[in-house]
Amino acid sequence: MELLVGAWRGERQLFLQCSAPHAWRGSCHQPSVSLQPPLLCTSPLSHSTGSDSGVSDSEESVFSGLEDSGSDSSEDDDEGNEEGEDGALSDEGHSGMEKTTEEQVQDGSPGPRTEVASARIGDEYAEDSSDEEDIRNTVGNVPLEWYDNFPHVGYDLDGRRIYKPLRTRDELDQFLDKMDDPDYWRTVQDPMTGQDLRLTDEQVALVRRLQSGQFGDMGFNPYEPAVDFFSGDVMIHPVTNRPADKRSFIPSLVEKEKVSRMVHAIKMGWIQPHRPRDPTPSFYDLWAQEDPNAVLGRHKMHVPAPKLALPGHAESYNPPPEYLLSEEERLVWEQQEPGERKLSFLPRKFPSLRAVPAYGRFIQERFERCLDLYLCPRQRKMRVNVDPEDLIPKLPRPRDLQPFPTCQALVYRGHSDLVRCLSVSPGGQWLVSGSDDGSLRFWEVATARCVRTVPVGGVVKSVAWNPSPAVCLVAAAVEDSVLLLNPALGDRLVAGSTDQLLSAFVPPEEPPLQPARWLEASEEERQVGLRLRVCHSKPVTQVTWHGRGDYLAVVLATQGHTQVLIHQLSRRRSQSPFRRSHGQVQRVAFHPARPFLLVASQRSVRLYHLLRQELTKKLMPNCKWVSSLAVHPAGDNVICGSYDSKLVWFDLDLSTKPYRMLRHHKKALRAVAFHPQYPLFASGSDDGSVIVCHGMVYNDLLQNPLLVPVKVLKGHALTRDLGVLDVVFHPTQPWVFSSGADGTIRLFT
């Protein structure tokens, strides 16, 4: 109701203005006709994207009660008919006008609204009686935003709604008008009336000047010459003849008081006079230390950014020849990933500094440096001022740890294939070796002479000499059998007593069920030294003796709990000590003094008590694959080698974790061994070297073992990527034997 009253007041004032003689003829001749056509009978939607009433086409169609029917088929023929039809589309209150319009459309005669609309389109300022704004929209001084959500824009003098123009033109019609109308580019829409206005040449020029940042007035010159008020020429008469003030030649009392205060402050020391600056320039390193007075420097937890590495010779524009890459190195560099390259650029050589082009990765490297400074976290670490020399353990000199093997003394040649295993007699006079050429060879240690060769008809995986000095017996693992041989070397009495011991066995009446079969050798086999054959169901990978010489442990290449078997020589019995498996067994070893059995799987070493039949300890070597095992003669320390080139020392009294891990070899370890008497242990690897270390174990339990590498022994040639396959010490001398893939056995003394 308030909107209606406000609109009526504005329209009443407009009506009174129109009652003047000069305005009645132009604007108030036909009030019902002159007020509606600008909004009801306007031309279609403006082509410009200028201001609209804030309502979309679909909303305005809903407000007017019409559906958007697109372009009319008769608009090309008769523009007046189209406007008459559009003007007739109003609410039910316009029934009289609807009838009149329909009759005019049927008769084909143009109605008064059509004439007025066409006249107004021809001259938009014909009825304008005000210099401020277009007064054809007689809604009064009411903001047009009030009508954004309504289908009309105001009321006329008769109180009828003035409806917004219909949006019946789609983008296709606008495109056709854009192509056909040459003045389309200079046509804009009037937000007050909704009509399309064509800009004149002067208005277009004004818009272009404003868009280019120029002044609107073409006659305005922003660069006019300035007029100086005071001339630079000497004039006869002064500018002013005002007499000088008295204060210009009388001392000032205020300044006198200020000076006296400053003198008193200087005497009291409140004001310090300026000291003369040192004229000599000071040079300092900008990056040596950050300014402590800066904001970041005063921050207690500020961590300065790490400095970039200084450029080297490779970054030079004229680098030395050894820094330039060859063609093969350049191809390898291009095929590598960016993160794997040692240099992020290719060193190049230029004749002079003027010929050096711009660096292509400059912006990228600066950006990455900014990201590192911005995103990488920095942490302050509390460091203790410790002398680096104090961190190095005080190891004794190798010359103080003698004796240990230092040089190669003898080479035992005779095998035609790689030598897998070695064993030395208890007295140290004889040496036995097993090879892939299917033979066992017995050597005299002192002369490197092969005294006997025993063909076994298969690959010898492991060989072990009985440690008892009262028995002359050798066990060899060949395929799925363990061969027990009497080489008959050395003392004949010992060899004879061994045969008597083996022949004194009386088999029981009912043979027990055993996991292995004991077979006597034939007469032909006894001629070459074979006495017994222990047959298994699977291939044998290792054989080892107990310290007393009566028990024998073997490892089978199978899955399950029958991987480890223990044979008793005197009673010719075999047993499987385990009821379940804990992985693939690699090596076994007897404890030298106590009833313990050590079983090494791929990832762990288990220590079993044979009498109690229980697991005592489980050692974790932290290796990927254990390859070899050895027990210290005292029994309290164990070493094991692995295929990932690690040697691990365990102290059984200390912990189940490694006491020390040595990484001296470059490739996989194949064998480790302790010396029976001297504090020495050795390891053989696929890199072709044997490393001898000093390993002193003290009787004092409070003192840890001392491990010192003392010598690297080389001599074996690499064959099929294999180096040293077995290592064994002499029982009484500080000598070490090694067998290699090159088919030789070497003695280092």
TrEMBL record:
- The organism's place on the tree of life at top rank: Eukaryota
Ranges of Low complexity composition bias in the record? 46-68
Against InterPro entries, the record matches this protein to: BOP1/Erb1, BOP1_N_dom, WD40/YVTN_repeat-like_dom_sf, WD40_repeat_CS, WD40_repeat_dom_sf, WD40_rpt
Q: Which residues form the BOP1 N-terminal domain?
A: 147-405
The entry's localization annotation reads: Nucleus, Nucleolus; Nucleus, Nucleoplasm
- rRNA processing among keywords: yes
The residue spans of each WD repeat are: 412-453, 662-692
Q: Which SMART domains match?
A: BOP1NT (SM01035), WD40 (SM00320)
Gene Ontology MF terms:
ribonucleoprotein complex binding
Task: Mark out the compositionally biased spans (Acidic residues).
Answer: 69-89, 124-134
GO CC annotation, single: PeBoW complex
Q: Where is this region: Disordered?
A: 46-134
Q: Quote the biased-composition stretches of kind Basic and acidic residues, using this chain's numbering.
A: 91-102
Q: Which family does it belong to?
A: Belongs to the WD repeat BOP1/ERB1 family.
Functional description taken from the UniProt entry: Component of the PeBoW complex, which is required for maturation of 28S and 5.8S ribosomal RNAs and formation of the 60S ribosome.
Give the protein name, as stated in the record: Ribosome biogenesis protein BOP1
Origin organism of this chain?
Macaca mulatta
